[in-house]
Amino acid sequence: MEGNSSKRTAAPKRSKSTNEPLLNRESATALYMQIAERLRAEIDAGTFATDSKLPAESELTQRFDVSRVTVRQAIAQLLADGYVVSKQGKGTFVSRNKFVHDLKPMRGFYDALVAQGVEPKTKLLEFGPVTTPEPLRQAFGEDGGESDCFRLKRLYLVDGEPIALVVSYLPPQASGLTWEQVNRNPIYVLLENLLAMPVAKAQIRIRACSAGTSVGRALGLSPRAALLVMDRESFDGNGMLLERTSFHIRPENYEFTLSVQGPLPVGSSIKNVNGAASHDHAE
Length: 283
Hints:
Arc Repressor Mutant, subunit A; Chorismate lyase; 2 domains; six-stranded antiparallel β-sheet; globular
């Protein structure tokens, strides 16, 4: 009969345990990417709330009928995309919205967080005199003297989770500061209000590095975990160094932004791999 000869589009096969569409094993998209895309969509839809824990590897393995290796690749992709964070010994959790640090206005790390409606908490881990590192001796105006500079280490937390470890070096004049003063005030407040050392300018460098043992322990990360590091040097109006600080930041929830103004200078031609010059001057 004519009705029996018509073709029907086959419905996608579904998992017997969850009744959801199975992965397309004939697709050019790798299985781990399909899993990552599905989990990403569920996070965007609110199926997994911010700070909630993702299902264990064994559950995802059973749900998608794949190996643990494939599940781990999918989770690694979500980590790279900033959708989840890994907490050592606890599991994988949905990450919160990123903090966006605008580098154009000169302000401290604490104030940059507050400007985004965040209420960071801090924990002072160390404050006291240390032998001045050689690169800082002349910068702090010691001229080969024996004065110690002062080092402080401070942990920044948001919603109880560490997001940054800050290590600062202050000049010998910081000897008049107390633990309580340092515990209650950010670096720029210490300099401006308590030491009467106004900050006129700052130089900032941003790099990536692995956490290492001590920083990783403070942030709850493995020593090999990748970090964003913002190195800052602040100077007075005469060019004297007032502080040097390194901010070791968990990268999954943090990004930097900088707006620049034209006009755009047109540079020289660039060379392609084959050595030929390209006429596309600006990218």
